[in-house]
Write a structure and sequence with these properties.
The structure is a single chain. By secondary structure, this protein is an alpha+beta fold. It has helices at residues 87-97, 126-144, 150-164, 223-228, 236-256, 259-278, 289-305, 328-339; strands at 18-32, 37-38, 42-43, 47-65, 73-78, 81-82, 107-115, 176-179, 193-195, 208-212, 310-313, 319-323, 348-352, 358-359. It folds into 2 domains: 4-199, Ribosomal Protein S5, domain 2 (2-Layer Sandwich); 206-352, Alpha-Beta Plaits (2-Layer Sandwich). Helix 2 packs across helix 3 and helix 5 (236-256) runs antiparallel to helix 6 (259-278). The chain is globular, with a radius of gyration of 20 Å. The structure holds ligand DP6. Ligand DP6 is lined by residues 30, 33-35, 41, 47, 124, 126, 165-167, 223-224, 227, 273, 314-315.
Length: 360
């Protein structure tokens, strides 16, 4: 399964009139960041992420056979109510995956979706949302092709999710997921995410991610626009090379449990991502003053206590605080005492490493 052609549905031997499926898929947090892409959702550099456990999208898909009139036919419900503004995104997704799922126009779909985290929290739901929908589409395809292997099922689910939103391909299967060709990771691919299968040191088991909601406003720059800014970016080539090096380094670190080295790479990746946005044309500052307050407080706490806690950021102002399970109590006390004042309405979400999508 190394070319796009391998993902064109075949052996659709069964006939299915109607049915339904339900999947949850989690969000994920990148350690080495995906920032910059080529045509057809091919990443400019490889990335690696921790899969989250509790921040997820739950999507139910109902399907009923219909006359193929050349259009996609679907209703979209969000928390049980019709949601017109989400439809264009789904329409675009279906168009992108049609070549691989030619059966889609033969069905009417009802997509009923909800998130476990508040929609307006500023947490991107595109990764979990596109992953959950892709799992459901694969359940339909599996019903049409009962001989499909489990390996193909998950791989194609990740392949489809990538076409919806790049980072979504890392929300399908596994606790640590690599997406993008990388010489040091066997089987890695630009087309789908793969589970990081090397041994992972116990320092990282049940790793914690507390998400501090600094700014819940609409994103200033969509990730699509952001990725685009890496074309003709003066530092793009160096950045893509650096991501390869950081991925090699983090691969060893995940094996040897060196938390100090882990922190250096993870924080540097977060700041580099923001540095890329600050040095593009047009340029953006996506951190808020409170993002910086939090970063400085984490650095001071780490310096004073030697507790290995660090931060990472996505393309926004919210801060993900990452730390091992065995320091959970002291870090939570620190977060509650010193960081919540910097959060919008004191809001935060406690999450941790999870395992991927779940069939409900
Ligand atoms: C900063 O996956 O949201 O979170 O492919 O355009 O949908 P699209 O972009 P998206 O980009 C996420 C970028 C990031 C870093 C990361 O998750 O690797």
């Amino acid at each position: 399964m190394n070319s796009e052609k391998d993902f064109i549905a075949k052996s659709l031997t069964a006939t299915i009139e109607n049915g339904s499926s339900e999947w949850s898929a989690p969000s994920n947090i990148a350690l080495v960041k995906y920032w910059g892409k080529k045509q057809h959702q091919i990443p400019a550099n490889p990335s690696i992420s921790f899969t989250l456990r509790d921040c997820k999208t739950i999507t139910k898909l109902n399907f009923a056979k219909r006359e193929n009139d050349g259009n996609f036919s679907f209703d979209l419900l969000f928390e049980g109510k019709p949601k017109e503004d989400f439809k264009p995104k789904i329409q675009k997704f279906l168009e992108r995956i049609e070549a691989y799922c030619p059966y889609l126009k033969e069905y009417h779909f009802t997509i009923d979706t909800e998130n476990t985290f508040p929609h307006s929290s500023g947490i991107a739901s595109s990764a979990s949302g596109m992953a959950a929908l892709s799992m459901n589409i694969m359940s339909l395809e599996k019903a049409l092709n009962p001989s499909m292997s489990e390996d193909y099922f998950y791989r194609k689910a990740s392949f489809l999710a990538r076409l919806g939103s790049g980072s979504a391909c890392r929300s399908v299967k596994g606790s640590v997921v690599v997406w993008g060709n990388h010489a040091g990771i066997e089987g890695s691919s630009d087309l789908f995410g793969v589970e990081f299968t090397s041994e992972i040191h116990r320092n990282f088991s049940n790793y914690q991610d507390t998400i501090l909601l600094v700014d819940k406003g609409e994103k200033q720059v969509s990730s699509t626009v952001g990725h685009d800014l890496m074309h003709n970016h003066p530092f793009a080539e160096q950045r893509f090379g650096q991501a390869h090096q950081n991925l090699s380094a983090i691969k060893s670190i995940l094996g040897n449990g060196d938390l100090e080295a882990f922190i250096k790479i993870v924080e540097s990746e977060a700041l580099t991502l923001h540095a890329m946005m600050m040095t593009s044309m047009p340029y953006f500052i996506l951190m808020k003053p409170n993002t910086l307050e939090i970063i400085n407080a984490i650095w001071k706490f780490r310096n004073d206590t030697k507790i290995p806690v660090c931060f990472t950021l996505d393309a926004g102002a919210n801060v993900h605080v990452l730390y091992p399970e065995n320091v959970r109590e002291s870090v939570l006390q620190f977060i509650k005492g010193e960081l919540l004042g910097y959060c919008q309405n004191g809001q935060y979400i406690c999450d941790r490493i999870g395992t991927g999508a779940i069939n409900i």
